[in-house]
Amino acid sequence: MKVNFNIVRQNQNTAPKVQTYSIEVEPGNTILECLNRIKWEQDGSLAFRKNCRNTICGSCGMRINGRSALACKENIRNEVARLQQIANNNNNYSANTTSESIPEINISPMGNMPVIKDLVVNMSSFWQNLEAVEPYVSTKARQIPEREFLQTPTERNKLNQTGNCILCGACYSECNAREVNPDFVGPHALAKAYRMVADSRDHQTEKRLEEYNRDTFGVWGCTRCYYCNSVCPMEVAPMNQIGKIKQEILDRKDKQASRSIRHRKVLIDLVKDGGWIDERKFGLQVVANYFQDIQGLFSLGPLGLRMLARGKFPLTFEASEGAETVRSLIESVKNFDIRSL
Question: How far is Cα 301 from Cα 303, in angstroms, rounded to an integer?
Fold first, then answer.
């Protein structure tokens, strides 16, 4: 079958342009195999990274039809089927995937990193942010040179999921929080950070949690968009690991520790009380810190007035039906988490 590849071409600090290459492919060919053929047979100047060709090294990360993926993992059959499904779900989508036309696959460099050439990006910030969370075990076992630091199967199992990360950059590329907040270390770093928190051999858990709790550098910079989970080729689920770090922090801190922690705890308390959030109390308790933060209280004024003027501020509050059931479910989940530790 014939496929058109629309590839974004770009040199460092120059405007990108799209160049189209047409090649005959087999449905089972991977995107990386097709890029190799384009480079070898049509345009030797095309630049992209590759190495293992077997979903191990993570080198061939790029955006394929709008989302970051490994070129060695995705194949023509799946991509054409995915585009056809999008076209079926959205009549306005312009994907050229009908049986009478030539399928088109769009290839572009990963996001949140500057382009060096074509599909090759500068990953310096990616590696620097990984280093910032100190992703290596600092263990007292070094003081016991006569034997290994043994772990039980249960302790080791806690590390399996995050240990699957191959540092391909897909999650970092799609991270909305990283796009708007240069201080945020990124989902890849925090997934590795949880591995250190969960590792029984590490003896700096408290120090690590304080660091990961710092402003929007760590876990509170995450916007919970779940894009990192959706694009991860190894099912590491970085968003889930960030949530686990948050819970470790919440278990150790009270509402006065920070606005981020107060936001989470107040939200849960209000839902437990009324089955849903009482918006009249939420801002006063979180932003104004129960009237203790005068600056925060005054910051609510303009918003409150606009909401009142437009009839969007609830003057009364009614608990939702089944509030008692909601409260029971929250307590059950909390008790389940405690028992599973």
Answer: 6
